[in-house]
């Protein structure tokens, strides 16, 4: 599910569009590139700083507090120990641009899933037939156990 991330949005501000209605300003996203990268590239990996480390504070995400809580739960593996920011690392591609796009894609998936409010469970009552079947099964199980018990003559 590859989504196109638009860098400058037409909504008047500079930012990355992570989900419908969620644009994070570039100033809130901190990106570092490191040479210590594993993955494809052979010796090139040792010479080029292609591994991307993207950091974004949870508070910088323009989402509701409930969505922020869901995002923290969904992206728990990337959450810092104090729970204040996401730190997403990608080194599976050979270029900085593709690794950065991979980090943004992961963040985008978490945010897109977090902004969808889960449906509340609707209480339902079991049907009369279901209740009767359950009670009949309980009675039969009790009868079976009573038949297994030996007499007192021992």
Describe the structure in your own words.
The protein has 154 residues and is of the alpha+beta class. The protein has a domain at 15-114: Double Stranded RNA Binding Domain. It is 35% helix and 18% strand. The strands form 2 sheets. It has a 3-stranded antiparallel β-sheet with strand order 3-4-5, covered by helices on one side. A two-stranded antiparallel ribbon has the order 1-2. α2 (65-74) packs across α3 (96-114). The longest helix has 21 residues, at 128-148.
Q: How is this fold's topology laid out?
A:
Layout: E1 15-19, E2 22-25, E3 29-34, H1 44-47, E4 51-57, H2 65-74, E5 85-90, H3 96-114, H4 128-148
Antiparallel strand pairs: 1-2, 3-4, 4-5
Helix pairs in contact: 2-3
How do you describe this structure in short?
35% of the residues lie in helices and 18% in strands. It is an alpha+beta fold and 154 residues long. It has a domain at 15-114: 2-Layer Sandwich (Double Stranded RNA Binding Domain), CATH 3.30.160.
- Please write the CATH class name of the domain at 15-114: Alpha Beta
Q: Approximately what portion of the residues adopt beta-strand conformation?
A: 15-25%
Low-pLDDT parts are: 1-12
**Got a strand count?**
5
Q: Give the H and E element order.
A: EEEHEHEHH
CATH topology of the domain at 15-114: Double Stranded RNA Binding Domain
Net shape: elongated
Q: How would you characterize the largest beta sheet?
A: 3 strands, antiparallel
Specify the number of helices.
4
- Strand arrangement within the widest β-sheet reads 3-4-5
**C-alpha Rg, in Å?**
27 Å
